[in-house]
Design goal:
Helix content is 23%, strand content 25%. The chain is of the alpha+beta class. The protein has a domain at 16-57.
């Protein structure tokens, strides 16, 4: 059984949330509003690269 976790920083009112699950050799990511539509699987290195890219592209607020 896969245990999905949502950050406590998630936006509960707007529904802008993702969930992560630790797999044996990867990290799974899914949309918390549509958990049955599938998920993205990344290696830990791939997830780090994705997060770094998102931080680079984020608007300065």
């Amino acid at each position: 059984m896969t245990t999905w976790r949502k950050s406590h920083h998630s936006d509960e009112t707007g529904g802008h949330c993702i969930e992560l699950a630790a797999l044996p050799h990867a990290i799974a990511i899914r949309d918390s509003k549509a958990p049955d539509t599938g998920h993205l699987t990344l290696t830990p290195h791939g997830l780090t690269a994705l997060l770094n890219r998102l931080k680079q592209d984020a608007p300065n607020t």
